[in-house]
Design a protein that fits this description.
The protein is α/β, with parallel strands linked by helices. The chain folds into 4 domains: about 110 residues, Tetrapyrrole methylase, N-terminal domain (Cobalt-precorrin-4 Transmethylase, domain 1); about 120 residues, Tetrapyrrole methylase, C-terminal domain (Methyltransferase, Cobalt-precorrin-4 Transmethylase, Domain 2); about 120 residues, Rossmann fold; about 130 residues, Rossmann fold (3-Layer(aba) Sandwich), CATH 3.40.50.10090. Helices cover about 35% and strands about 20% of the residues. It binds S-adenosyl-L-homocysteine (SAH).
């Protein structure tokens, strides 16, 4: 092994990655790939925290936040030092920077330091906040009918100082669209400069704060009025100033802030395994989801009952599924026993549409779907079919309501309950949830089963009813169906939203309708 090889082996690498403007969906595939393999992540104030989801649990996370003009968690010098230090220790380091690393991001300064220290590096571009802010505010940054040029400038430096790097005189009329980064503090001077150098005072201007995030806030004015508009609306950094005729198109194109749940903070209480469908539907509609996996699903330790039933599966007349989890874990065990769907020759009934859809993924169409998607509804539908003397297998959670097996047994069926999974209450994050409730930032909480309600209450850990009511004051509650709603009311809380059909998509639709109709909370 020669010297160079040894060096490469011992030295890590630094990846300077553009995080995009805020929406965690706007990172590149390359950026996500690197985050998934990072050993150390040094991230910025402007990089979306949600991107840290991609990082392995074992990675070291370092917040190197630098807020414009305010607190510096680290100086630029210290950040450069951190990158060098961890790379020297042989680590794969991702330096995650808001927007694009080379657009007003001091990315080059960090690279120069790496070069000096002979540390290998790579740079991954990102969606810069200027294009994102324009797009998410409904402004096409260029347009054949309006402008063929766009300029990105920093408003950070004082435009009145003599040695300014920006030729405001040429810029004022030289570029069709002008986007100013870090321009809020100097906005009065910037607009005055542009007007002084010949730009029409009536030129439309938009200012967009926290672009592409659920906190996005945008306002509109002209070069003459925008300073006042910004002052009145209380807009603070980080924000971008977009100057040009294209701003006029916003009236037609604005889409992001028009989504029905835009700006709503929603607590999603679901099992981690199942949260994704609910979260993506809510996010599609503009909500900001705070995920709390209130329960965690695990297979049962004792598979004796299900194994025995599968051993004589041909003797059963019916197989019942009352949840997606039951389907998932039943099939998992079936496959582990080297069996497959062809072994299930009995008739199959499911409690509701979502469970039916899950079953379909295994190539099986349910024979029976009740009109009412509850255990009671399913019992009723089966009894109508005639269950006298029928052998029924019910794979389900270790702890579950007994009403379904009880009713069927009472109607003369022989029911075999076979636990296939269990709900495990979560650990941690209690404090975070309580703080969010206390600060009044939560608009809505969704409950998709009674156990999510119970586990939520355990997490909130209110001293008494009074404290619970104080924490939940102003929070809207959505429950997926009547059983879940009962658990909510039993706890002394009120259900505001409940869909007619007990599915995730119906619940999201009911939430959307609630806010469309101007629901408070
Ligand atoms: N490298 C970044 C810019 C860093 S400079 C990029 O490519 O976007 C920091 C400035 O960027 C902020 O002061 C603000 O003007 C702008 N900015 C960054 N993210 C923003 C966002 N989500 N919304 C509005 N402005 C943003």
């Amino acid at each position: 092994m020669n010297n160079t090889d040894e060096k490469i082996k011992r030295t890590g690498k630094v990846y300077l990655v553009g995080a995009g403007p805020g929406d965690p969906g706007l990172i590149t595939l390359r950026g996500k790939y690197l985050l998934e393999r990072a050993e150390v992540v040094v991230y910025d104030y402007l990089a979306s925290k949600k991107l840290l989801r991609h990082v392995p649990d074992t990675a070291k996370l370092i917040y190197a936040g630098k807020k414009g003009g305010g607190l510096h968690a680290f100086t630029q010098q210290e950040i450069n030092g951190l990158l060098v230090e961890h790379a020297r220790a042989g680590k794969m380091v991702v330096r995650l920077k808001g927007g694009d690393p080379f657009i007003f991001g001091r990315g080059a300064e960090e690279i120069e330091e790496l070069v000096q220290a002979s540390i290998p590096f790579e740079v991954v571009p990102g969606v810069t906040s200027a294009t994102a802010a324009a797009t998410y505010a409904g402004i096409p940054i260029t347009h054949r009918g309006y402008t063929a040029s766009v300029a990105f400038v920093t408003g950070h430096e004082d435009p009145t100082k003599k040695e300014s790097n920006i030729a405001w005189d040429k810029l004022a009329t030289g570029a069709g669209t002008i986007v100013v980064y870090m321009g809020i503090k100097n906005l009065p001077i910037i607009t005055a400069k542009l007007i002084e150098h010949g730009r029409d005072p009536q030129t439309p201007v938009a200012v967009v704060r926290w672009a592409s995030t659920p906190q996005q806030h945008s306002v509109e004015g002209t070069l003459e009025t925008i300073t006042e508009v910004v002052r009145e609306s209380g807009i603070k950094p980080p924000a971008l100033v977009i100057v040009g005729e294209v701003v006029k198109l916003r009236n037609t194109i604005d889409w992001f802030e028009k989504r029905p749940l835009f700006g709503k903070q929603v607590v999603v209480t679901r099992t981690r395994e199942q949260a994704s469908e609910l979260v993506s539907l809510l996010e599609e509609n503009g909500a900001d989801c705070l995920e709390y996996s209130t329960i965690h699903i695990e297979p049962v330790e004792d598979t004796g009952a299900v194994d025995a039933a599968l051993g004589e599966i041909d003797t059963y007349d019916w197989l019942l599924f009352t949840s997606i989890n039951a389907v998932t874990w039943f099939f998992k065990r079936l496959f582990e026993l080297k069996m497959d769907a062809r072994d299930l020759r009995c008739r199959i009934a499911v409690v509701g549409r979502t469970t039916a859809d899950e079953l379909q993924r295994y190539g099986i169409r349910a024979d029976l779907l009740p009109e009412k998607f509850t255990g009671e509804g399913l019992a009723e539908a089966l009894i109508q079919e005639g269950v006298q003397g029928a052998r029924i297998l019910l794979p389900r959670a270790l702890k579950a309501r007994e009403v379904l097996p009880q009713r069927l047994t009472a109607a003369g069926a022989e029911v075999q309950v076979a636990p296939v999974y269990r709900n495990v209450p979560p650990q941690g994050r209690k404090e975070e949830l309580r703080e969010q409730l206390q600060s009044g930032m939560i608009d809505l909480i969704t409950f998709t089963s009674s156990s999510t309600v119970r586990n939520f209450l355990t997490m909130v850990d209110a001293r008494d009813q009074e404290e619970l009511h104080r924490l939940m004051d102003g929070v809207t509650i959505a429950a997926i169906g009547p059983i879940t709603a009962r658990t909510v009311t039993d706890a002394g809380l009120k259900v505001d939203i409940q869909p007619e059909r007990y599915t995730i998509s119906d619940m999201v639709q009911a939430i959307v309708n609630h806010y469309r109709e101007g629901g408070a909370g």
